């Protein structure tokens, strides 16, 4: 991997100290991005019928932009074919630069009809909603489901999916298509070779990492360039230690929420991984793909990630790897929540821009995506569950996806769904993420990291330009 020290610490310090990686100025963004049209009138609406409940213009073109990340885009290409059986031709675009390519079009009022607003460059949907640039998906949710025509679309979704698309009101502005289980991912084969089991307490975690280090294997790696990945294990770890209300207080920007003892204990525990040399050398300077590759090569035992990782790391994963996910290790027996507590949620957000030329077509395309045909195709292609209840029943699931289902089942009601990453994207991704990155690189101690996180949260709470949300 080579040395990644040059410039790394300066970058991490700047992200933590400045608190934000500024969005590129609109004038500096790519001017070659293409949208749904020329910003003129929307397409003429079609007639509503039993077969066309949303009133889609059957000859109008549709424009769909997909984030080309862990899930790729083949599932969307396949959905286009289903859509085109009844409606117009779909123009398809894939990119990893969602914000760079799409934000100028949103500003100009010339966006595509569907945007998969995901990835490291996702747009701040809360800000777009505040500017009335995102369509309310109520017509879609109230339409008959293609999965079960006797039900409305909303009645076929896994609990929590609709709530995840709400931002302070009854309207639903985004559909999170995948249902993701986050946690500590590992190779069952690698643990068997070490003759250890997955550690259920932090003392056990440190013992496993110590044993691995003696054999030249790092305990952990992570996406150093995208440190918000740590939230996938840190947020549920904090909730386990102090209870679900601690995370709710953090989401609500309550005073001193980050100074809760549970946060301090969680930060101190993770800092031990750095202090004891259990993190793969060079990790702070690598991205998610590089960290996953080091992990699948057997250079590290554990990685914080979501259930898309099985598909994203498929090409480098050995056949005997036995990819598995587990909840974060508990701290100790004093924890407020059980070991089985996990972070899981409807994820991979899709939205229909309010100024799209073919809003009805965009919603119909999403209705097609939630058909049994497309939902099962997604699961089989990318090894991930969808938000559609029962869609995976009867399918032969991969090892990682099987373990994700088992973790979710074992958690029962002990599932936490933080909203900070939806409500306050900059705070979560750049400011909190940057602070954790600096701590895990050894540039600051846990106490300073706690204070820094609270300072950033307070700054957001006092910023009158940022709309505030609260758990009800």
TrEMBL record:
<dbReference type="InterPro" id="IPR006059">
    <property type="entry name" value="SBP"/>
</dbReference>
<dbReference type="InterPro" id="IPR022386">
    <property type="entry name" value="Chitin_NgcE"/>
</dbReference>
<dbReference type="InterPro" id="IPR006311">
    <property type="entry name" value="TAT_signal"/>
</dbReference>
<protein>
    <submittedName>
        <fullName>Carbohydrate ABC transporter, N-acetylglucosamine/diacetylchitobiose-binding protein</fullName>
    </submittedName>
</protein>
<dbReference type="Pfam" id="PF01547">
    <property type="entry name" value="SBP_bac_1"/>
</dbReference>
<comment type="similarity">
    <text>Belongs to the bacterial solute-binding protein 1 family.</text>
</comment>
<dbReference type="InterPro" id="IPR050490">
    <property type="entry name" value="Bact_solute-bd_prot1"/>
</dbReference>
<keyword id="KW-0732">Signal</keyword>
<keyword id="KW-0813">Transport</keyword>
